[in-house]
Amino acid sequence: MNGPHQNQELVTVGTPLADAEAAMVLVHGRGATAQSIVQMGSEVHRDGLALLAPQAARNTWYPQSFLSPVEENEPGRSSGLQAVDDAVERATDAGIPTEGVFLLGFSQGACLASEYVARNPERYGGLAALSGGLIGESVDPTEYNGDIEETPVFLGCSDVDPHIPLERVHETSEVFERLNGDVDERIYEGMGHGVNEDELDAVDELVGRLVSA
Predict the structure, then answer these.
(1) Which terminus of the chain faces fewer neighbouring Cβ atoms within 10 Å, N or C?
(2) How many whole angstroms separate alpha carbon 14 and alpha carbon 21?
(3) DSSP string, 96-139
(4) How many whole angstroms from its chain centre is CA 213?
(5) DSSP SS3 for 33
(6) 0.85 cut: is pTM over it?
């Protein structure tokens, strides 16, 4: 498609794709940048891992809350999903299998990364949705079909996040369990809207499974 986020920069750092064993696609949050999310990725980077981060036009993937009716977030939502797909394809075109591609998103980016994996079910290297969940006014688990073949799925969120209702995190877990994901949901008391060390440690452990020591 030719949406608002197409033809934006794809930031690539870490191990060059031609030499990488695995890739991490990082999706930034509202008001942030690809450069800022790769800084988070650098905290779990190791040799053999390429980092790829698409950039949203005007730093926002879609205009409304992720809890709004889907049509109110178009064409940004669909264009954002295409931007994630383009980044995944960049990695697979370089010879990295899909099971070596790890998707990580924070906030709005976590919502987009979750939606991408749920709607494109296959075995991935992993998904980490930090302070986010599936997109839409409501979630119907029966709308998501397929098999992600025990892809590790890490969902981390606060119990009092002002943007992410706890129930949506639980619903997202349910969908990924239904899709045959290996789901690890962790809820942190009083954290607010952010990322903590336990989440980064969990992501680091999952990344360690993808690249040689």
Answers:
(1) C
(2) 12
(3) --GGGEEEEEETHHHHHHHHHHHHS-S--SEEEEES----SSS-
(4) 24
(5) coil
(6) yes
The whole-angstrom separation of Cα 34 and Cα 23 is 15
| Residue type, position 181, single letter | G
Q: What is the DSSP string of 5-20?
A: TTT--EEEEES-GGG-
Integer angstrom CA distances of residue 147 from 87, 103, 105, 175 = 21, 17, 21, 11
- Whether residue 86 contacts residue 54, with contact meaning beta carbons closer than 8 Å, is answered with yes
| Six-digit token string for 43 | 């905290």
pLDDT tens for residues 154-210?
Answer: 999 999 999 999 999 999 999 999 999 999 999 999 898 989 999 999 999 999 999
32: left (phi > 0), else alpha (psi -120 to 50), else beta? Answer: beta
Q: 184-200: per-residue pLDDT in tens?
A: 999 999 898 989 999 99
> Over the range 148-170, which residues count as b (16 or more CB within 10 Å of their CB) and which as e?
beebbbbbbbbeebebbeeebbe
Query: What residues pair up with 129 in beta bridges, in sequence order?
Result: 105, 155
